[in-house]
Amino acid sequence: MSQIADAISYLKRSLDLARSKELRPYVIIPLIFNIVVFGGLYWASGSWISGWIAASTADWAFTGFWSFLNGALEFMLDAAIILVWILLLALFASIFSIGVQLIAAPFMGFLAEKVDFQVTGHPMPEESIPAMIVRTFKRELRKTWYWLWRALLVLFVVGVIYFIPVINIFASAIWFLWSGWLLGMQYIDFGADNRQVPFEVMLQRLQKKRWLVLTFGAVVMGLTMIPLVNLFIMPVAVIAGTLIWVEQLSDSEQGTVNS
């Protein structure tokens, strides 16, 4: 229970840190960029579809005895256009979060470095750019292999359970918890990667705090499912993941530092 409470506490602290003067630029710059891209695509798509509906129905009108229905027809067409805007908002807010993570990934690495240094006071290890590129590429390959075959195995288990009466109610919960673990690992790994901690060592330390990692990832997973909130949660999750690594999972020298 203490690990679960810690996960919630770290997310609350991260909200405060995200608004701090030191971290604000690393949060606001990618956020503004993402909102501008999101808003532009949303407005362009909604305007095009609304214009198409208006042009396609311009000649729609009842005549003669049924002309009294024209008011209701106009109301229905206006309601259809409003519904299009609402559905587009939900669709873009859900799908666009994937693009947000890809676009903002470099900024998130810098954000994690800033949080680490602010909490520990220790500079990042020195490393040349070519060495960093090779190291991070190898790490991403290792990380992909870690989750890929396990995800297929979990998917198989969930698929089998789904067809078993009564037990099938746990299928969605299993997949949600597994996704939460992966998400927690992903955000915590920003801090570990900046300190050049090997992936296997990072995993060993995560396993010592399973409920902390799982709760953290599951809460973030739930927040990413809320339209628009998923555009703001990523930098907060990066800050929380870095704090968890520094204060709970790193070596004893850094782990004793508390902000």
Describe the model:
With 259 residues, this protein is mainly α. It has one domain. 81% of the residues lie in helices and 0% in strands. It has helices at 2-18, 24-56, 70-120, 129-162, 171-194, 199-208, 210-224, 229-249, 252-255. It is globular and about 85 Å long. The chain starts with a helix and ends with a helix.
- What is the helix content? over 70%
Q: Label the structural class.
A: mainly alpha
Largest beta-sheet details? none
Which of globular, elongated, flat, extended, rod-shaped describes the shape? Answer: globular
Number of domains: 1
Query: Radius of gyration from the CA trace?
Result: 24 Å
Residue fraction in strands: under 5%
At a glance:
Helix content is 81%, strand content 0%. The protein is mainly α.
List keywords for this structure.
259 residues; mainly alpha; 9 helices
Task: Give the secondary structure arrangement, pairings included.
Elements: H1 2-18, H2 24-56, H3 70-120, H4 129-162, H5 171-194, H6 199-208, H7 210-224, H8 229-249, H9 252-255
Helix pairs in contact: 1-7, 1-8, 2-3, 2-8, 3-8, 4-5, 5-6, 5-7, 5-8, 7-8
Membrane topology: Multi-pass membrane protein
Subcellular location: Membrane
Pfam families: EI24
